[in-house]
Amino acid sequence: ARLVAVHNPLVADLLREAYPAAAIDAIEMGVADPLDQPGGSAAVDQEAARFRAAHGIPDDAVVVAAFGGLTAEKRLAPLLRAVSVVRDRVPALHVLLAGTPAAHYDVQADIEHWGLTGVVHVAGFVPDETLPAALRAADICACLRWPTNRETSASWLRCLAAGRPT
After folding, report:
1. Where are the beta strands (DSSP E) in 11-119?
2. Is residue 50 helix, strand or coil?
3. CA distance 22 to 59
4. In contact, 121 and 97? CB cutoff 8 Å
5. How far apart are CA 145 and CA 153, in angstroms?
6. Cα maximum dimension of the chain
7. Whole-prediction pTM value?
8. In this structure, what DSSP letter does residue 7 have?
């Protein structure tokens, strides 16, 4: 390779230390504002209400959402456990999982284990044209990936770009 490109300047520095002869550069991962849609925020709000309804999320729910592949590395099990603990004090709390389920992690088993059937809404893969509505349907985003490979999470950046507490 003539150039190694990464999205994180820290990783670029670490690679330069390990491979001083290599050409290494950090390139920003551009993530556009996913809520900047035709029709403005009112149109996105209407789409978000339809998204919530389509996935059985009550209008008055406080929604914690996780975006991206539904894997153990996204720390969905600890998120579900935490929701099960606070659910008595925050009965309006719901969880939206928007992403493709992984073959190596049974998210449905964890939902059932923590007694969260009807509280956790698995949307599955969300296409790009529906993503703004899914982001607007979320009140809070959980981006808990661990372990990390020091990558930059596009899901996390999209949550931040949408102005969601993350």
Report:
1. 24-26, 62-67, 93-98
2. helix
3. 53
4. yes
5. 9
6. 57
7. 0.80
8. S
